[in-house]
Amino acid sequence: MRTNSDTALITGASSGIGATFARQLAEKGYSLILIARRQDRLASLADELQQAHSVRVETLVSDLANLNDIKTVEKHIGRLEHLSMLVNNAGFGTTGNFAELDVAKQIDMINVHIIASVRLCRAALPGMIARHQGTIINLASTAAFVPIPGHIMYNATKAYLVFFSEALQAELVRTGVNVQALCPGFTYTEFHDTSEFKNFNRFRIPKPLWMSAEDVVSKSLKALKRNHTVYIPGFINRCYVAAMRNRMISPLLFRFVKRKSRELHESRAN
User: Fold this and answer.
1) What's the average model confidence in pLDDT over 35-42?
2) Catalytic member of 154, 160, 231, 240
3) What are phi and psi of 10, to 5 degrees?
4) Reported confidence tier of residue 246, pLDDT bands at 50, 70, 90
5) Does 188 qualify as catalytic in the annotation?
6) C-alpha dihedral sign at 150, 205, 236, 195
7) How far is 258 from 230, CA to CA, in rounded Å?
8) What is the number of domains present in the chain?
9) What residues pair up with 9 in beta bridges, in sequence order?
């Protein structure tokens, strides 16, 4: 049962799904620790939530591509008396063929998606297990279920988070700690607004495939009550993943996705 002392730590909290988690958890009365790179965004969000919900909000500026910053957040978690929820949301995407991309950026993605998530889980779990209560949400993606050329590191790191979360939950049976790998599909956020996706056109993706960040987060939080370790919000997204896992359908769907990915890559080159 949640208490007034419950605290949630959210990475990548300055925008998108992370900021939406912050807003919805603040509305539920959680104290918050918000982690992100952009101090101005964090400060603005903290002021908004404190005024709207009278909750305690702490901010910590950290770049989780940097191992020293990851260790700083780890130490901060170790000093917390009661961390009820950890949301490993920080992430970013790249586009282009792996052999042509800057390897440093690919290592940064591994650090943000995998190393940070694993180390922060490890830092949070002893206290959660001792209290027999806690929740960890690892932000994966429907991309975890299909290897798409031009995005292989993103998809591979998200696939890691799915399998890591499933195995971790199996270890945590009867501890009172629940783990969720949240796997959204296309979501209206700033994710596609970076220079990496400068030629990305949202209107090329059928509107029914998109969800709002608010809908993704509210469904995620409701799904925690049903103990779904791998949670895919949205009926269409669940159908897509089911098709990718079907041995009869997946080769056909994969060839279609591969062809569309190649067309998109060629349009960027032009």
Assistant:
1) 95
2) 154
3) -125, 125
4) low
5) no
6) positive
7) 25
8) 1
9) 33, 86
Beta bridge partners, 30, equal: none
Q: How far apart are CA 106 and CA 111, in angstroms?
A: 9
- Judge whether 203 lies within some domain: yes
* Residue 139 covered by a domain: yes
Query: With contact defined as beta carbons under 8 Å apart, do 122 and 144 qualify?
Result: no
Sign of CA dihedral 42, 193, 98, 231: positive
Amino acid at 65: A
Domain span holding position 103: 7-242
Residue 141 lies in a domain: yes
CATH number at residue 175: 3.40.50.720
Asked if residue 5 has pLDDT above 80, the reply is no
To the nearest 10°, report the CA torsion of 197, 143, 88, 71.
Answer: -70
Provide the token pair at 230.
Answer: 């791998």
Q: Which of the pair, 178 or 268, is modelled with greater confidence?
A: 178
Tens-place pLDDT, residues 167-190: 999 999 999 999 999 999 888 676
Q: Is residue 217 a part of any domain in this protein?
A: yes
Q: Specify the amino acid at residue 253.
A: L
Distance CA 42, CA 96 (A): 31
User: Could you read off the pLDDT of 79-88 as tens digits, one per residue?
Assistant: 998 999 999 9
Phi and psi at 58, nearest 5°, equal -110, 145
pTM of the shown model? 0.86
* Dihedral sign of CA atoms 8, 12, 17, 22 in order: positive
For residue 226, pLDDT beyond 60: yes
